Amino acid sequence: MNSKNRTGEIALLATLQEKVESLAVELEKIKVAEYVDMLNNPRRLFFLNFIAGLARGVGTAIGFTILGAVILMILRELVVLNLPLIGGLIAEIVRLVQMQGRV
Q: Which helix (DSSP H) or strand (DSSP E) does residue 66 occupy?
């Protein structure tokens, strides 16, 4: 009975060892050690977050500029089409935006 118990324990230990090794490989793949090192270095964490914030801000500004330009181009084309109901409104919006751009 004792040998069966030991055989079961050995099998359990082998299974646990395989799972631990598998977990270690997965943790290595997702670079947990690098993440923990970064959290332990506040200066590096601050610097990386600062650079990420700058990139997001610049990307937002560029994206909004492109989107605004496309909308203005569409509005100008609608004015050229001379739609009776919204043509005057669109012309006024384009004029206001152009005046703001000159200021």
A: helix 42-81
